[in-house]
Design a protein that fits this description.
With 192 residues, this protein is mostly helical. It is built from ten helices and no strands. Helix 4 packs antiparallel against helix 5 and helix 7 packs antiparallel against helix 8. The relative contact order is 0.07.
């Protein structure tokens, strides 16, 4: 079950969405076999997260939001760090739907949970902070939003010897912000 779940996530990242949909049904069935009736099933959270990510990447934001909210309900009572990570995806879905105000609130909550639970230097904390900046810029607070994004990207770049997906994602957003400001040179540096 968990191996198949890993395959689901890999297929989603590779953009092989039809295969991922088939694999998620198989993973869901396999993981459900190990569940105890009447108790929360942590595997269901992973399936809901995977389905939310799949729907997000295929621009089906309504279904993505439904799945991520189901995952949030379970993680809210189990793990604040897991909840913080799950909120990151909900905020991305809200941002994609055009609800930047709600996304900013969601990203702030995610960042708060990371900090309060000892993850204040963790890459996902800075990713959440950068996404707050993106959401702020989208609602019109461009200068402060771009500054928050730049600060988060600097923290990610300075604190890690590894190039993580969070850093790549924020660099792409920062490059887009630089292009929006007309700073092509900065955009090229960020997109190298």
């Amino acid at each position: 079950g968990f191996v198949r779940f890993g395959q689901v996530m890999a297929l989603i990242q590779l953009g092989r969405f039809d295969e991922a949909r088939t694999a998620v049904v198989e993973a869901q069935s396999s993981l459900a076999k190990g569940a105890t009736p009447g108790t929360p099933n942590p595997a269901a959270v992973n399936i809901d997260r995977a389905l939310a990510l799949l729907e997000y990447f295929t621009s089906d934001y309504a279904n993505a939001l439904q799945h991520i909210n189901a995952a949030i309900e379970v993680t809210r009572s189990s793990s604040p760090v897991s909840l913080a990570g799950t909120l990151l995806l909900r905020g991305r879905i809200e941002l994609a739907q055009g609800d930047a105000l709600r996304a900013a609130e969601t990203f702030r909550e995610s960042e708060r949970l990371f900090v309060e639970n000892g993850r204040d230097a963790h890459a996902q904390r800075w990713y959440a902070a950068g996404l707050v900046g993106i959401a702020r810029a989208r609602v019109g607070d461009v200068e402060a939003g771009d500054a928050a994004l730049a600060d988060a990207l600097e923290k990610l770049s300075g604190d890690s010897k590894h190039l993580g997906l969070e850093q790549i994602d924020l660099a792409l957003y920062a490059g887009a912000a630089a292009r929006r400001r007309g700073d092509v040179a900065a955009a090229l540096v960020l997109h190298r």
